[in-house]
């Protein structure tokens, strides 16, 4: 319990630092071996990731700076919220996240049988499914000009992935650090996006149930397909579910983020495949995991989520008040400095070059007004090439 | 330094949202990609014997030569070769282009790849494979 509370507190702190993410924090915990017992370390990392899945929405809502999972909120939902709207926004994130965990839990009992079966059946087709999804994401951009820009952004970021994958340029454990900080951290820290402030509206229960069903199907699907991340899953769910109202976007993104993270533990346990940073960290620390360990980890997910939700709801109002007094620019500089220090420390000069390049691609996507999910070409294109060619 | 960098990049971004600025950022991205490309192609593999591969060499590009001692197929349709030159090491074959190679036990191969560690075991993740 002590380690869960520590993890939640760390995830909470990370949520306030623009450009910083739970991946960076977990990396620090795993690398420096601050917690020596493997079980406690895994529980702490789970608490960090789960609490960040909630608190990570604070940075895009307050400062307009997102990451792979939350940057869509800037494109489609909220940023620069007023004090009252922030409280409502945080409550929406809390309820969406809880729904995400609830819908994924029943799968725990079928994971051992279902996942290997579906995974093996889909495996020969995964490359083509990914290719189709990426083409579809480009296709749904409005107008030929934007379709072209989206394809360009996808190819540019994909080229980065192809060049650096298995190249030995940067230690493989830290390869994603400069890439994601550049694509999502630096680019949104630097880029001044067009923002509007909207009043929050309640979502009807029947609508919430429908959104939960869409989130469940989307997360389930994403957990089978190598390379699919939370950003693309949310983007597809928004399109297919016909979800466009801002509060519904926030609700479904939070639900998908938590469901995806929880399901990734089931996938790791049943197939040994890594689908999220959390799963990667668990595998790094524990190696292969068994069903009994999976149950323990899922317990940590539930406790972490409950503590995070209580904290979100209790702190929503005072936080909104306090944050309205903080100068966002100083926090952005603070976040930027931490990210630069991390990159230099773990990846050296090449990491800086990589982060600079990916930041330029990230800024381009924002300037050309295409969805930030195309930036995930950095992971998807190498996966597609490896699976199809 | 980072304060100056962020200020510089903010200024760069806030200068009129013109086409020229977008093109400039595109050119910077291409320059960055070119720099990464040249950095990557300049990493030369170190040719060595399998016995000399150790934990500290994880993430180094190496070249090994040997014969295929064993080929194992996993449940997920991936192949795992054991390459032998007196000592042996596992070479996971995950990319489709390598799965298409027609090799059998006893074939001589040269492998350029990255030293990785999986479940505490050292492996060579292939980038190029030459069947001799």
Termini separation of chain B comes to 52 Å
One letter per element, helices H and strands E, the order of chain A comes to HHHHHHHHHHHHHHHHH
Helical stretch tally of chain B: 3
Estimated structural class of chain A: mainly alpha
Number of helices of chain A: 17
Summarize the SSE layout with pairings.
The complex is a heterodimer of chains A (389) and B (132).
Chain A: H1 2-16, H2 22-32, H3 38-55, H4 58-63, H5 71-76, H6 83-104, H7 108-122, H8 126-139, H9 143-164, H10 176-190, H11 205-224, H12 230-240, H13 246-271, H14 277-286, H15 291-323, H16 328-367, H17 377-388
Chain B: H1 2-14, H2 19-41, E1 46-47, E2 61-73, E3 79-84, E4 88-93, H3 96-99, E5 108-118, E6 121-131
Parallel strand pairs in B: 1-2
Antiparallel strand pairs in B: 2-3, 2-5, 3-4, 5-6
Please, could you describe this protein's structure?
The complex is a heterodimer of chains A (389) and B (132). Chain A has helices at residues 2-16, 22-32, 38-55, 58-63, 71-76, 83-104, 108-122, 126-139, 143-164, 176-190, 205-224, 230-240, 246-271, 277-286, 291-323, 328-367, 377-388. With 389 residues, chain A is mainly alpha-helical. The radius of gyration of chain A is 19 Å and the shape is globular. The termini of chain A are far apart. The relative contact order of chain A is 0.20. With 132 residues, chain B is of the alpha+beta class. Chain B is elongated. Helices cover 30% and strands 37% of the residues of chain B. In chain B, strands 1, 2, 3, 4, 5 and 6 form a 6-stranded mixed β-sheet that branches. The chains are: A mainly alpha (389), B alpha+beta (132).
Which characteristics define this entry?
heterodimer; A: 389 residues; 0% strand; globular; B: 132 residues; 6-stranded mixed sheet
């Amino acid at each position: 319990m002590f380690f869960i509370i520590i993890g939640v507190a760390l995830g909470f702190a990370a949520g306030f630092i623009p450009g910083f993410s739970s991946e960076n924090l977990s990396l620090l915990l795993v690398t420096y071996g601050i917690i020596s017992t493997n079980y406690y370390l895994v529980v702490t990392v789970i608490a960090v990731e789960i609490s960040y899945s909630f608190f990570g929405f604070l940075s895009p809502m307050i400062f307009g700076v997102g990451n792979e999972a939350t940057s869509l909120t800037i494109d489609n939902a909220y940023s620069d919220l007023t004090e009252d709207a922030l409280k409502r926004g945080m409550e929406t994130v809390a309820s969406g996240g809880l729904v995400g965990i609830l819908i994924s839990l029943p799968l725990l009992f079928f994971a051992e049988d279902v996942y290997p079966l579906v995974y093996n059946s889909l495996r020969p087709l995964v490359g083509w499914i990914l290719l189709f999804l990426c083409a579809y994401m480009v296709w749904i951009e409005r107008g030929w000009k934007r379709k072209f820009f989206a394809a360009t952004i996808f190819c540019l970021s994909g080229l980065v992935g192809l060049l650096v994958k298995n190249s030995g340029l940067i230690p493989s454990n830290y390869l994603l650090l400069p890439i994601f900080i550049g694509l999502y951290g630096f680019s949104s820290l630097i880029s001044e996006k067009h923002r509007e402030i909207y009043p929050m509206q309640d979502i009807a229960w029947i609508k919430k149930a429908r959104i939960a069903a869409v989130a469940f199907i989307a997360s389930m699907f994403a957990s089978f397909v190598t390379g699919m991340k939370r950003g693309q899953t949310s983007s597809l769910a928004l399109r297919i579910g016909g979800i466009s109202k801002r509060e519904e976007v926030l609700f479904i993104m939070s639900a998908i983020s938590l469901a995806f993270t929880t399901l990734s533990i089931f996938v790791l346990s049943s197939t040994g495949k890594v689908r999220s940073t959390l799963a990667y960290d668990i595998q790094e620390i524990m190696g292969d995991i068994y069903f009994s360990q999976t149950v323990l980890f899922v317990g940590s997910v539930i406790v972490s989520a409950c503590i995070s939700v209580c904290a979100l709801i209790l702190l929503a109002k005072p936080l909104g008040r306090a944050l309205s007094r903080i100068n966002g620019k100083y926090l952005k500089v603070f976040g930027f400095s931490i990210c630069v220090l991390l990159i230099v420390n773990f990846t050296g000069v090449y990491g800086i070059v990589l982060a600079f390049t990916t930041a330029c691609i990230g800024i381009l996507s924002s300037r050309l007004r295409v969805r930030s999910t195309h930036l995930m070409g950095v992971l998807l294109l190498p996966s597609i090439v490896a699976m199809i060619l | 330094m980072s304060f100056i960098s962020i200020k510089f990049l903010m200024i760069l971004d806030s200068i009129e949202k013109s086409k020229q600025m977008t093109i400039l950022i595109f050119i910077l991205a291409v320059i960055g990609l070119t720099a990464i490309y040249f950095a990557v192609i300049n990493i030369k593999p170190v040719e060595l014997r399998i016995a000399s591969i150790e934990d500290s060499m994880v993430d180094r590009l190496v070249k090994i030569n040997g014969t295929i001692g064993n080929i194992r197929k996993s449940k997920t349709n991936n192949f795992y070769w054991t390459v032998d030159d007196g000592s042996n090491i596992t070479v996971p074959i995950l990319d489709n282009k390598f799965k298409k190679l027609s090799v059998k036990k006893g074939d001589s191969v040269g492998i350029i790849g990255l030293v990785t560690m999986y479940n505490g075991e050292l492996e060579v993740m292939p980038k190029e494979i030459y069947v001799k």
